[in-house]
Amino acid sequence: MATGSGMTIIPCEQNAKLREQIESFAETLKTEAHRLGDHGLDEAEFYNSGLFRGAVERIRGQFSATMREKRQFVSHILNFMTDGGYISDWASAGENNRHDYSVRLNSGKIAAIELKGCLDGNNTNIFERPPHANEFVLWSVCTNPGADPRHNAWSGIHTRLSAEIISRSQRVDGLIIWDMVCGTIGRPCPRCLVPAFDGLGLG
To answer: What is the 3 state secondary structure string of 115-178?
Structure first.
């Protein structure tokens, strides 16, 4: 995860204390979950029934599936760029496309943006450069406070994106990594006192 100069791939880092608390709570939840709720099952019946695993998978799926917060964030950024004259305009690409946004640059060229979550997931491998795009950008917006941003960036670039780029000859012109938890109690940030937009080079 570190380069030869001792620098890490990105400056954001995981909150080690929070990670320990998450792991400890997860262990407690696994062993004490049968005491929660009014399911009427004893301990053995509860864990053999699939209720616990099913509930965990449902919660996991709900967290993974929701993109509303991420899309709102990206909309704010693109509107900010439009108002500031950094881009001409932008539009959502719609449900039928494999990319999420189409951005018209001031030069008239089109940049297509594919929105991703944390880069360590299988979703990182799923992308297709649209034929009309002059530039194609992948934008990672991670919202998981328990994630390790340095590992995610390394894993996403070296074991997922690079493999797809090489094996499918997919050209990717840019990668944006934005950790929405950065600067909060869940993610110490070396630039936490810098305004958010300045972190994107827009300030």
So the answer is: EECCCCCHHHHCCCCCCCCCEEEEEEEECCCCCCHHHHHHHHHHHHHHHHHHHCCCCCCEEEEE
